[in-house]
Amino acid sequence: MEPLILAVEECDFVNEPVCAPGDVAELFVFTDTLWGTPITRTIFLIGLAALIVIALLYFGYRNRQPVPTKFQAMMDSVTGFVRDEVAIGIIGPEGVKYFPYLLSIFLFILVGNLFEVTPLINFPITSRMAIPAFLAIVTYLIFVIVGFAKNGFRYLADIVWPRSVPVAMRPLVGIIEFVSYFAIRPFSLAVRLFANMVAGHVMLSLLLVTGFIFVVNIGEIPLKGSFGFAWFALGLGIFLFEIMVAVLQAYIFTLLSAVYIQTSVHPEH
User: Fold this and answer.
1) What is the pTM of this model?
2) Which tops the pLDDT comparison, 81 or 37?
């Protein structure tokens, strides 16, 4: 709960309508190291998210039983969905070879997003731009390398000179497509995930902190303190909403990654 209580000590709950840290970056940037090592809280959580994904897959698929356990059935549902609906459903039969990557980023982003609503953590690692940017760059490298590997120079030629467009419009459309493929795609892929998780984390933090402080100090601010219950209730509503957002953003990032790879595997589509 540490990020949610950053504003407690400095909050002027008598005069301020909302309790917030002086710099909102305090909710995202952690410079203190852990246990006397160079590891910061953010680095630790990134490693923890990766270990959780490994553990989910390991315990979900070791010692398979004729009748799967509930946990194995849950993992089968998740992996089956990513394989059938995203990898094969979007890319086609060749999507099987990209399934491990798509499953990995889906689970990693999902776990990282859900850290936002995890007690004692309350911080989505995907709200640090470096994480979405790195994953977007990996996706970018995959679909660009696959595009050139499968189609050669024609991959670039079909982008900058689209034959399905009237000749007079091909130069303009080609420039737009080139910028879209090689600049906008990775940028928008990263920013979409980053912006959604930042917005959710800020709202959740400020609402719950404000509600908590106003209710605790209701004796000094009776009228305003009563509004603390409304702030806190709204924060709990956002809390539930953010669970849905965490799942949805992991799905969207994975889905778009599959779509971009599909345009390289089957550029004619």
Assistant:
1) 0.85
2) 81
